[in-house]
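Pilot study result, target chain (186 residues):
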Amino acid sequence: MTAANFAASKPDRTRSRVRLRPTMSSDLEYVVSLERDPDNLAFITPWERTQHDAAIRFPDFRHFIVEGGEGLDAVGFLILIGCRSHDQSLELERMVIQTKGSGFGRAALRVAKKVAFDDLGAHRLWLDLKTRNTRAKALYDSEGFVVEGQLRDAVKVAGGFESLIVMSMLRPEFTGRRSLGLELPE
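Predicted structure:
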């Protein structure tokens, strides 16, 4: 799969240019280090390196490095699952961006939606997130994802359990947003 590009204009900021490229084995130390970063660890359930290694090889997954900025340096990663789903339902399994508030997350999400709906033929793109991840929730809300429900006490965390919010976007919603200029063009 070819890398996908996007430039997003943000108020009071420079343009956030991103590209998704397939993750290679040589990228896995970077990926694991992002997951282990204390700024990210509270919001995800980290994988072992071997899980990421399997994900870059398994045809049902798309594991991407998010490259951004003028030099297109690595700024994060994201994983799509269900790319061969008979039901055309893909999951945004994980998106981790190194520098928060940079616009790279929004830009990467828009490219991921384009890949899911245009390249992979998804009818539904869904995700879940921990209830305390208010920054991500605000991003997904603003990017057109709809709350489907909550999985109560679904994840064991230090000191107890945490609930997950399930959100999704359907192809007609994506198409409607595109017609309003809110998504990347075809």
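One observation from the pilot: Confidence is low (pLDDT under 50) at residues 7-14. A full batch analysis is planned for the follow-on phase.
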